[in-house]
Every structure is written in structure tokens, then in C-alpha cells.
Amino acid sequence: PEFPRTPNEDHRYIGQEYDLPSGSFSEDFHLYQFEWTDSLLVWSIDDVEFYRLTREEIEARTSYYPFDQPFYVILNLAIGGDFLGNQQPDESTPDRNEVIVDYVRIYQDTNKDPE
Q1: Which of 100, 107, 108 is nearest to 27 (CA)?
Q2: What domain range includes position 77?
Q3: Which of 27, 33, 73, 111 sits 20 to 30 Å CA-CA off 19?
Q4: In the chain, which residues have pLDDT < 50?
Q5: Is the residue at 112 inside a domain?
């Protein structure tokens, strides 16, 4: 995937789809993992790595690399956009969506000097 332009021309995004080997995400709890270092980003679901990006790969696509700076963590459910093309909601569209979170754990590498 490339970094398509967003409405704010100063920012770009990248993503990767992941399909469960069997079943659906709504059938059970799942472990979502994200490893973030100054030079590497790794995404996993249920201990299966499905995407990784190095700092060099990102810098080859854009001159902006913000991932060596402190960030806040946001956990949310974002619904919307143009994922269904031009389809409009109708009576068959579910009117309720939720994210049920059992727990959140954040680990910090204690071998690294805090900033």
C-alpha cells in the first residue's frame, strides 16, 4: 500500500487489511498488538504478525517520520467514511455498533532511557 493523500495535504496514511484464518472478529475476543520502537512498527492480531514497517521504508515514501516522538494512545470505534461506495444506510443497516474491551496493557521498554 502507498501513502495516499488525505484531505489535509500535510498528512498521509498507510494500512494493511487482515482476515482471520476462520470465523469473524465479532465471534470472540481478540488480542490486538502493536509494537512501536523508534525504528520499527509491527501489527499483530492473536499473536499473528500481519504487517511491519521500518523507519527506512516510511522515510523512502515521505520525509516526515513522527514515530520517534511521544504520542497519546487513543482507543476508539470510528464508523463512517466511504467504505461502501455511494451506498446510503437503509432499514437493513445495523443501528448499533460497539467495541467491548476486556483489558488494555501498555508495556514500556525499561532498557531505554525515557525521554
Answers
A1: 100
A2: 1-105
A3: 73
A4: 1
A5: no
- State what percent of residues in the chain have pLDDT above 90: 21
Task: Report the distance separating Cα 47 and Cα 114, nearest Å.
Answer: 27
Please give the pLDDT value at position 68. 82
User: For residues 57 and 30, what is the distance between their CA atoms, to the nearest angstrom?
Assistant: 28
Predicted local confidence at residue 2, as pLDDT:
52
Residue 96 falls inside a structural domain? yes
DSSP 12-34: B--------SSS-GGGS---EEE
Q: Residue 66 in contact with residue 59, Cβ under 8 Å?
A: no
Is 113 among the domain residues?
Answer: no
Q: Is residue 111 part of a domain?
A: no
User: Do the beta carbons of residue 12 and residue 47 sit within 8 Å?
Assistant: no
How many domains are contained in the chain?
1
Show Cβ contacts of residue 65 under 8 Å, excluding neighbours closer than 6 positions: 55, 58, 59
